Amino acid sequence: MTDGKHLGALSAAYAATRPEEVAALYDRWSQTYDADMSAAGYRHPTICLALLTRHLPRGAAPLLDAGAGTGLIGEWLDITGYPKVEALDISQGMLDKAAAKGVYTALHCLAMGGPLPFADDAYAGIISAGVFTSGHVGAEGLDELIRICRPGGVIVLTVKNTLWESGFAARIAELEAQGVVTRVEETRPYVSMPGEADTVPSRGLALRVN
Fold first, then answer.
1. Are strands 63-66 and 85-89 parallel, antiparallel or unpaired?
2. Model pTM score
3. What angle do CA 115, 72, 42 make, to 5 degrees?
4. How, if at all, do strands 106-109 and 85-89 pair?
5. N or C: less crowded end of the chain, CB within 10 Å?
6. 178 burial class (0-12, 13-18, 19+ CB within 10 angstroms)?
7. Among 173, 125, 159, 164, which residue's Cα sits nearest to residue 145?
């Protein structure tokens, strides 16, 4: 069990209504984030990594870790054979922690949900763990990730059930019907933080860009 510190920080982040609020909360949280998430048994990074390695060849580059936080996934991507990964996060404090790990080739302090300053087809793959959730980014953030991921590339993301049921599932189905993406894998819903009470389940998705 955690001491409740983490749950308070996460609840505040979910309740934030403006990107600058979210950024400030994560800036403050960055000092203890890794320890708090470890205590909560945070599963999103591991599940996203498993999905990515199953559907994107080792060495594919460059990748974008969209919502990189302190760089939990970046470290593991480096170990498992993805040598060129860029980090994007709304919080400079979190990115400073990620930078110290020395595994990212570039760091971008940006909010998701609107236009991103990257070229079409810029990335071979994108991983986005714990971003599509309450108070963070909704289905509107998908289109830009698809635009900047090259055809044949893979986007791996997690989606909280509340978001899934309030339009995200319908948007994925629509994109599939239009031939924009193919859903290559979808996990069953799982609890992302077993160490916290009353956590709403999420699911992992792997989408191939057509």
1. parallel
2. 0.87
3. 100
4. parallel
5. N
6. exposed
7. 125
